[in-house]
Amino acid sequence: MDFITSDGVRLEYDDVGTGRPVVILTGLGGSRAIWLDQVKALTTAGYRVLNIDARNQGASQHTTKGRSIARHALDLAEFIAKFKLESPILLGNSMGAATMFSYVSLYGSRQIGALIDVDQSPKMINDADWSYGYQQLTWENFHTVLEQPLGRATYQRLADETYLANKAALKEHPYDAALNQPFLFDHALKDWRGVITTLECPFLIIAGEKSPYFDHDFAPKMANSARHGSFQVIKNSGHIVMAEQPRAFNEALFDFLAANDL
């Protein structure tokens, strides 16, 4: 299915199941197919799952329009409004989690049921007061590092069904990193730590113990800064936690949902 944003960009999404809405946001360059195990588990448990490909990735339109994290947040706001989603649970990996933080910075969190951040540090750049950014990214090497391929995101091989579904989706709709590079720069410049301290809804960070992108110690630090924050570090997992360790990830996810009556 497709959704047209206010600036005329087509976003592809799936809408399956019934019940409380869960909106899924994939990381940079990814496809919504990577969430296969979570879509199955959530719909079986009685949730409605709306799984979106962001602009410039997956099956959504590739365009020069709106290459900023704020525009991604506006896309999310328009999507929630279009389908009149009440108290949705937002679940995002990597850049998808940053989209959630940008959304909260613009619209607040009172209308959101919960936020779940999957292996995304709130600040990508390392400096004197933050050492949990992306790899060795600093203000001094910012352009040099981000103009290079981001490198392998996983620690474990994905389960066969998810691997094949994701591979097919990316083959059909290849990611254009050069086209979307201005967006990557904009995303990487942001600092969402202050936004996290304002969250009024339950907040969970699920980090990968072996993430090649982020030191998992960012998770307790930021969870403790939120009023209703918690975290889980999944062992033997890289950056794509939900697809590398789906059983452990889903257990952490459903424990959080149950603990917060969601």
Automatic annotation (TrEMBL):
InterPro entries: AB_hydrolase_1, AB_hydrolase_fold, Carboxylesterase_BioH. Residues 22-252 form the AB hydrolase-1 domain. Pfam families: Abhydrolase_6 (PF12697). It comes from the Bacteria. PANTHER family: HYDROLASE ALPHA/BETA FOLD FAMILY, PEROXISOMAL MEMBRANE PROTEIN LPX1. This is AB hydrolase-1 domain-containing protein. The lineage of its organism: Bacteria, Bacillati, Bacillota, Bacilli, Lactobacillales.
